[in-house]
Design goal:
By secondary structure, this protein is α/β, with parallel strands linked by helices. It contains 6 helices and 16 strands. It has helices spanning about 50-55, 75-90, 90-100, 125-135, 200-210, 240-255, and strands at about 5-10, 20-30, 35-40, 60-65, 100-105, 150-155, 160-165, 175, 190, 215-220, 260, 270-275, 280-285, 315-325, 330-335, 340-350. Helix 2 runs parallel beside helix 4. The protein starts with a strand and ends with a strand.
């Protein structure tokens, strides 16, 4: 169960309703035992934010925001600030932040423009806006290095949970377009250019260091899907050499019990890269969107790695239950309005 400390500080622009407003945000102690993590992505600032109360009712130990945390779609930092201000003004969000430790990374719509990467020339300024909006501690290395990748470890020896949040935007090279007239939705195809990067050299080196840290379970938050490979939208499989590199890095570092958590797609599903293609089965639990339901046309899209009973495009969030005694996970996708379980999959650790 969660043992949270409370951190009080003068709020940044996203949370201040009057000058000098002081918010109390929950933060998890490094010694806290973690057995329930909530997560999700894609929160339009102009749509309902009642989902915070639904998620908060689970009293998760940690909450991970996996990108598109607002829909700014702009190179104007005042417009981006305004989007965060609108999100921060929702009482349900403020109450959630007081109770549940929250960690975030970004995706394209809260980074810059749709599907944008390293070519976005306001990325440094957008990073500052992001860090201010989420009240990043003053001593965080995210203030002094390019990109917002981040990592934390919680729990006692034998039950250590590592959270790794990747930045799949700041350094990401150009995507390859599908040939004109190609069948199926989406615009992207796997690139043959092995010089194109997803993470950039510095983040790759940092990630190797993180995967070598002692931990019993690791959750890698990626704004885009890691396992699914057949659709034509953004995904790691658009850069197969980078996807293979991460699989090999997990093997080389001996990192145990790695689980990917992803968003972006405006649909939810649970996928698994089998042990025949990885050091062990690598699960990718995708949750999207909190309040912007997906397109029904995606409901039947192919995914040979899907282990859930189909995918789910209405509003949703994800839960990961860690059963330390049984050494098992239970992954759940729940409806963001009712809290009902709509997809689920259980897995033994290390299978």
């Amino acid at each position: 169960m969660r043992l949270a400390l409370l951190l009080t500080f003068t709020a940044g622009f996203a949370f201040a309703q009057t000058p000098g407003t002081v918010r109390t945000f929950a933060t998890a102690s490094p010694d806290s035992l973690v057995d329930l993590i909530a997560f999700g992505s894609c929160a339009g600032q102009d749509q309902s934010h009642e989902f915070w109360d639904v998620i908060g009712a689970h009293d998760p130990d940690l909450f991970l925001m996996l990108g598109d945390n607002v829909y700014a779609d702009t190179g104007d930092m005042q417009e981006m600030r305004a989007a965060y201000e609108k999100m921060g003004a929702y009482p349900t969000y403020a109450y959630f932040r007081e109770r549940i430790p929250l960690f975030a990374t970004w995706d394209d719509h809260d980074y810059g423009f749709n599907d944008s990467g390293a070519e976005f020339d306001m990325r440094g300024q957008a990073q500052m806006v992001f860090l201010e909006a989420f009240g990043e501690p003053a001593d965080s290395p995210r203030w002094t290095r390019p990109g917002i990748y981040d990592a934390h470890i919680f729990g006692p020896a034998g039950q250590r949970v590592q959270i790794i949040l990747l930045d799949t935007r700041y350094f990401r090279g150009p995507l390859a377009r599908k040939p004109e007239g190609s069948p199926g939705p989406g615009r992207y195809a796997p690139t043959a250019d092995t010089s194109v990067t997803m993470l950039g050299d510095a983040q790759w080196a940092w990630l190797e260091e993180q995967l070598r840290q002692p931990a019993d379970v690791r959750f890698i938050g990626s704004s885009i899907q890691f396992v699914a490979a057949e659709h034509g939208f953004e995904k790691w499989a658009n850069m197969p050499h980078e996807r293979d590199r991460l699989v090999q890095l997990i093997a080389d570092t001996g990192a145990k019990n790695v689980v990917f958590l992803s968003g972006d797609r405006h649909l939810a599903e649970i996928s698994a890269l089998p042990a025949s293609e990885a050091p062990y089965t690598l699960y990718d639990v995708t949750s999207s969107s909190f309040n912007r339901p997906g397109r029904g046309s995606n409901a039947e899209e192919p995914n040979r790695y899907r282990v859930s009973e189909g995918n789910y495009s209405p509003v949703n969030y994800g839960l990961v239950h860690i059963d330390w005694e049984a050494e098992a996970f239970r992954f759940e996708i729940r409806n963001a309005l009712s809290g009902d379980t709509v997809l689920a999959h259980s897995a033994a650790m290390g299978e």
